[in-house]
Recover the amino acids of this structure.
């Protein structure tokens, strides 16, 4: 299986061996089974990307091959409109727990605040994260 480029926040990668498209298919099946909506992100086109919602949550699964090999990107947004770190396979309980996971030090069960566009930082990482992401 391809190594996700960003294993903390989601999965992004060229699908060299088909494993990333298989991962996207497993996520879609799990989301369907767990009562999420499913819509094409770009209806009326041949693009296979999908958009899923439930209870204020959003999951986007981008699946595109316009530039050659299939390219897969799976990402999720919590009801607080910040990005959520994804478990390797769909696991809603883990996604809920990740609402309180710091994107910078990996601390869990902690208060987090928005940094930059949609990152989560704990109190200990907040100032450095703002500096690193060019907010200050
Ligand atoms: Zn932290």
């Amino acid at each position: 299986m391809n190594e996700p480029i960003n294993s903390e926040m989601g999965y992004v990668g060229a699908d060299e061996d088909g494993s990333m498209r298989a991962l996207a298919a497993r996520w879609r099946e799990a989301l369907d089974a767990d009562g999420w909506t499913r819509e094409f992100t770009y209806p009326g086109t041949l693009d296979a990307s999908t958009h899923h919602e439930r209870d204020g949550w959003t999951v986007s699964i981008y699946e595109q091959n316009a530039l050659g090999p299939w390219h897969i990107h799976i990402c999720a947004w919590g009801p607080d409109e910040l990005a959520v770190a994804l478990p390797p396979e769909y696991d809603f309980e883990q996604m809920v727990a990740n609402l309180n996971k710091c994107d910078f030090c990996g601390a869990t069960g902690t208060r987090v605040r928005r940094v930059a566009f949609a990152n989560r930082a704990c109190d200990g990482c907040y100032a450095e994260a703002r500096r690193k992401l060019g907010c200050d």
Remarks:
- Residues 1-90 form one domain.
- The radius of gyration is 16 Å.
- The longest strand covers residues 57-64.
- The chain has two domains: 1-90, 101-136.
